[in-house]
Amino acid sequence: MPMNFNQRSSFSFSAVNSIIIINVLVFLASSFFEPNTDASLNSIAGLYNFRSDLFKPFQLITHMFLHGNFTHIFFNMFALWMFGTVLEKHWGPKRFLIYYFITGLGAAVLHLLVSNYLVSDIYNDYLVYQSQPSYNAFETFSDQYLPQARENGTINQFMLAWEQNKNSTSFITQSVELANEIFQLRLNIPTVGASGAVFGQLLAFGMLFPNTVLMLLFPPIPLKAKYFVIGYGAIELYMGIRDNVDDNVAHFAHLGGMLFGFLLIKYWQKTVRNKMY
Asked: Which among 34, 55, 84, 163 would be 20 to 30 A from 218, CA to CA?
């Protein structure tokens, strides 16, 4: 049967579906193949603090396609599908992709700025400890910046042994080395996930469709999109300022996605208004 090239193809490109497929494929690859390798994909392509020796510029993009576990990728991709599909229909694939990557990069930038500030605090406290090391000071430092230190067999044994001879020069020297290891551990934690870009989608949905009613899961109540976005943003800001060391969520990355999304939408709206006059 001859093909009619004038007939429109039934295939249509979907930016949202393409992003979801790439994320799932990367997650499956990292889940099935990395246990047999020395270095994980997340440890190579995750986003590191730019003061870390492990930081590479390409991580600003690659971290957006990596996830820590199934729950992480499931909720990110579900939210991307739910809000992103509507936005892509409203904007078209090209503008949606521009928005997605700008909000993802914006999330990375704000996260790096905040994390650098926090790491600077840790480094300053390490320098203070280095100048005045003691048993009590090390206990305070390790409990503040590595709460699980007391559950760490090596550190726990070290502290028990040091407690018997708190003025030992040998223990003091080892404690300075351990304090540096704690600092390096906090410095070299990679950030992964598409959450920053996904929060950008959430912000856009709330701005473009503010009165759309969403049914929440917890609690199961209806809520307009604009109030949902404001509430979620307020929670992220509170959690980010609180800075609980046990919390491994990059809250300022989420806020960065929302902030850059807001600025980009306002820029687009201003451009359209200027063209009308």
From this structure: 84
